[in-house]
Design goal:
The chain is α/β, with parallel strands linked by helices. It has a single domain, classed as Maf protein. The chain is built from five helices and seven strands; from the N terminus they run E-H-E-H-E-E-H-E-E-E-H-H. Strands 1, 2, 3, 4, 5, 6 and 7 form a seven-stranded mixed beta sheet that branches. Helix 4 crosses helix 5. The longest helix is centred in the last third of the chain and has 19 residues. The radius of gyration is 17 Å and the shape is globular. The relative contact order is 0.16.
């Protein structure tokens, strides 16, 4: 008999990311979803990776071993090819270690002020790693391409969402609403690739 529920820890304390992943994982139903907020004594490892994948694997492995549970960890960010791929893995701390989203966006706008039209192309990338206490079981990647505006638009979303317009859309991620974003985002694309593995875990119980 497969057990009805498996505990799965989302290895993040970022309330926005946790909420997005919870909403996307909810249809699976068979997981008790926890986040690092449920483990106040757990100390996260320093993100020393130079790629999203290295950081996702690092976070997943570390938390799975320390907490003795299945863990899903993600590392994501915005990549602007015209400025050497910045902010990249430093997306969350682009303007400094404790920078706010507003400060990060301002630094990015300043770095891009000389860029026009096609040079303002960018993409969000998300890598999700699934690990058990024995190690990483699966690592997948999703991306979402678009253009960056010169001025913020919209009050929703987080991070660089008010600047990012996905190709084929005329609204920023901060304007389209959570339910639409959760259907088309880089995080959604990555999660779709890991769902079959999660489903097989549920079946195995």
């Amino acid at each position: 008999m497969p057990s009805s529920h498996i505990e799965l820890v989302i290895a993040s304390t970022n309330v926005h990311k946790v909420r997005e992943l919870r909403n996307m994982l909810k249809p699976l139903g068979c997981f008790d979803l926890l986040s690092l907020c449920d483990f106040p004594n757990y100390v996260q490892p320093e993100e020393t990776g130079t790629t999203f994948e290295e950081n996702a694997r690092l976070k997943a492995e570390h938390a799975a071993k320390a907490l003795g549970r299945w863990v899903i960890a993600e590392d994501s960010g915005l990549v602007v090819p015209a400025i050497n791929g910045e902010p990249g893995v430093y997306s969350a701390r682009y303007a400094g270690k404790d920078a706010t989203d507003v400060e990060n966006r301002k630094k990015l706008l300043d770095a891009m002020q000389h860029l026009i039209d096609e040079d303002r192309q960018a993409f969000f990338e998300c890598v999700i790693a699934l690990a058990s206490p024995k190690g990483v079981k699966k690592c997948v990647k999703g991306s979402c391409e678009g253009l960056l505006l010169a001025k913020e638009r919209g009050g929703g979303g987080f991070g660089y969402d008010p600047l990012f317009v996905k190709h084929g859309y005329n609204k920023t991620f901060a304007e389209i609403g959570e339910s639409v974003k959760n259907r088309i985002s880089h995080r959604r694309k990555a999660l779709d690739k890991i769902l079959p593995v999660l489903e097989s875990l549920m079946e195995a119980g």
